[in-house]
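ARCHIVE RECORD
Type: protein–small molecule complex
Small molecule: magnesium ion
Source of inputs: curated submission
Record status: active
Notes field left blank by submitter.
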Amino acid sequence: MKITRILVYHVDLPLEYPYWLSGGRLKFEVLDATIVKIETDAGFIGWGEGTPWGHTYVPAHGPGIRAGIETMAPFVMGLDPRKVLEVERAMDLALPGHLYAKSPIDMACWDIAGKVAGIPIADLMGGGSRTPRPIASSVGAKTIEETREVIERYRARGYVAHSVKIGGNVGRDIERVRDVESMRKPGEIVLYDVNRGWTRQQALRVMSACEDLNVMFEQPGETLDDIAAIRNKHASPVSLDECLVTLQDATRAANEGLAELFGIKLNRVGGLTKAARIRDVALAHGIDMFVMATGGSVLADTEALHLAATIPDDNCFAVWACQDMLTADIAEGRGPRNKNGHLHLPEEPGLGVEPDEAALGNPVAIYEVTS
Ligand code: MG
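STRUCTURE (tokenized, with ligand):
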């Protein structure tokens, strides 16, 4: 089987509410999504998506995905999409780095492989748990009152897991953590996500002041070095996501004990093929996981759900579903949707959800076998 054609679509996905990253910085309202359709000579079709969480969040750029695909397409064309490692190597040789540009192609190849095998991607990866995964909310950095309001809004939709964004102001961060803890219900999972918004002294002050609460902080510094520097000075468990990019990041974090939770972002790490290795490093080191796309439609959420389903139930904290934050839906009514705060793995072969092609508009690029 050979890849014969790659169609690339650009779709704007408006957010229901404008979003502020931690510390009130970086407001944005629309996500730039790239949807990829891979066609084969055997008639199988695969769908992939790459949607960065704005272009100010991490080094990932919506138009950069489309430019990256233009560069990589000739090297991927003609390969067997079921041989995901060969496709991965071809992309890595054609364009070192730029992992976020690779994830939609990797995803579409896994979709095809699953369809050919007649089983969901998670099963093809070695076994997918059918235990529904809790969806974590994303509670933007706001005042105490607004934080309560947003959490209640998610609770009304059945959410039991929350990622509360903090950072940037020591006093306000301590107040918000204490307030959310005071309203936390039994069984609720809350992660305080700093999104790199603290300097080392800020991190130590907030984490020390909240030590009695026994809470977990995500990405409490900019880099692995920042997180390592304060590691032995506080008692709080730490989750890493933004600086968990390569397998080398994962092995360093595991060996040096820099994190107790890995937040694996599929678009950030370059797709399912690369993410599966990070998952295994985590499992081998007693590190639990939280899986998410970096943003996007139900397609991206579903990809994350497949990886989450390959993690033992006890080690998988939650997934994130960006779809609930959007006002546009490219696969209306299809694929895994919020059911009382959880996502259920689809039973259809491959990814288990396809977009409505009419919602994608015309392709912005088409690459095909020329000879
Ligand atoms: Mg995070």
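CURATOR ANNOTATION: Residues 193, 195, 218-219, 241, 263 surround magnesium ion (CB under 6 Å).
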